[in-house]
Structure formats: structure tokens, C-alpha cells
Design brief:
mainly alpha, 0% strand, single chain, Receptor-associated Protein, 239 residues, 9 helices, flat
């Protein structure tokens, strides 16, 4: 009994132990910094892990062996789910940052190229002017171009969010045509897409705000509107 209780306490402690992202967020708040990513909520990650641990324990018939195996399964599932969720959040945050900074970078590139600056130098200058991760992406492409890489080869290493910009500049390098109008058009399209995403998020938030109100009014409507009507019809039918 003592060993089982100790294993149970160990399981609860491991499941409730904060992840590395949560500890980093706490340290950032203690230092007065604002972390870019909020840690994932515990409950959605803990429930599948606890379910997996309980299933393993039940399959093994309980007892000390089932408790230990269930604890190991729950801890392993929690860690795997936490790692996958953290990777998805990081990828989503990176993609959003690239999309948000790309219109301004296109405008700056248009200004540099209009002034006669070569494409590698323009990419390097804009890469130092915009924040990461976009600045690092543009700097990497500029470095490859300066080393003599072909434009298509240099842009293959960039993220997929930069594919439209890469196609515009590759077309300019191959044909020698001006790209100022194309870059400004790309910047306008990026801003329009950002506005559309913002409007969609606002509409979605409005729907979720009204959801609790609907949950409050629906039972009242059923009790005061539908139930008396059904009872009246039933009384007339079975009278």
C-alpha cells in the first residue's frame, strides 16, 4: 500500500510539473518581459494523458503493475502532446510574424530597387531593417545570392510565406524587368489579407461572445414557449 501511494503521488507530481515553456514564461514575467507565446492550457493536454494512463492501468488489471505502467503512459503521453503543441504554436507564431512584416518589407525593397540598389544588397539592407524572423530569412537569401547562387536556388531555402516575393524577384532577375509595381502590389495584397484575417477573427469573436447568451435564453424559450404549447396540444389530444 505504501508503494502504491508513493507511485500515485509521483504520477500526480509528474503530470502537474510545469513544462519548459511555462517556466520560461514565468521567468520572463519576473524580469518584466512579455513572452511572445502564451503557454498552452493544462487541461486539454492533461485529459488525454490521464485517459491514456487510466486505459493502460485498466488493461493491466490495476494493482501496482497497472499503476506504474499507467503512470509511465500518462507521463509519456503528456510530454509528447506538450512537445507537439509547442511545435505547432511556434510554427504558427513564425508564420504570422512573416505575414505581418512582409508588406512593409516589400515597400522597402521597392524603394531600394527604384534607387538602383542591386537585389542582394537591397535584400540585405531590408533584412537589417525588419525584425526576425523575416529579417533573418531575407539576410540568408541575400547571403546566398552574394555567394553566387542562382536566384531559384537561393529562394528555395526561404519559408513558404516568402514564395510570392521570391517569384517576383526571380522573374526580375531572369527577365531584367522592373519589379517596383509588382512589389507594391504584393504589399497591398498582404495588407488586404491581414485586414480580412482580422475581420474574420472579430466576427468569430462576436459569435463566441453571443454563445453564452444563447445558452441562457434557449432553456427559457423552451420552458416558456415550447413546453406550454406541447402540453396544450397533448392535453387536447388525450382529453
Amino acid at each position: 500500500m505504501t508503494v502504491s501511494a508513493a507511485a500515485l503521488v509521483l504520477a500526480v507530481a509528474l503530470l502537474l510539473w510545469p513544462s519548459a515553456s511555462r517556466l520560461a514564461a514565468r521567468r520572463a514575467r519576473a524580469l518584466g518581459a512579455t513572452p511572445r507565446l502564451r503557454p498552452a492550457p493544462r487541461l486539454p493536454r492533461r485529459l488525454p494523458a490521464l485517459t491514456a494512463g487510466l486505459a493502460v492501468a485498466l488493461v493491466l488489471g490495476g494493482g501496482l503493475t497497472g499503476l506504474v505502467a499507467g503512470t509511465a503512459a500518462a507521463v509519456g503521453a503528456q510530454r509528447l502532446l506538450g512537445t507537439a503543441a509547442e511545435a505547432r504554436r511556434l510554427a504558427q507564431a513564425r508564420s504570422q510574424a512573416l505575414q505581418a512584416d512582409l508588406p512593409g518589407a516589400c515597400d522597402l525593397l521597392a524603394v531600394c530597387l527604384t534607387a538602383g540598389v542591386p537585389v542582394p544588397s537591397a535584400l540585405a539592407a531590408v533584412g537589417t531593417a525588419v525584425p526576425d524572423p523575416l529579417g533573418g530569412e531575407l539576410g540568408g537569401v541575400a547571403g546566398l545570392l552574394r555567394l553566387g547562387a542562382q536566384p531559384r536556388t537561393a529562394w528555395q531555402a526561404a519559408s513558404s510565406e516568402l514564395a510570392p516575393l521570391g517569384r517576383v524577384l526571380i522573374r526580375a532577375e531572369e527577365s531584367g524587368s522592373t519589379v517596383t509595381a509588382a512589389l507594391r502590389s504584393l504589399a497591398q495584397e498582404g495588407r488586404a489579407a491581414a485586414r480580412a484575417r482580422t475581420e474574420t477573427a472579430v466576427r468569430r469573436a462576436g459569435v463566441w461572445v453571443l454563445a453564452p447568451l444563447a445558452l441562457c435564453f434557449l432553456p427559457a424559450f423552451l420552458c416558456l414557449g415550447v413546453a406550454p404549447l406541447v402540453l396544450g396540444i397533448a392535453g387536447n389530444v388525450f382529453r
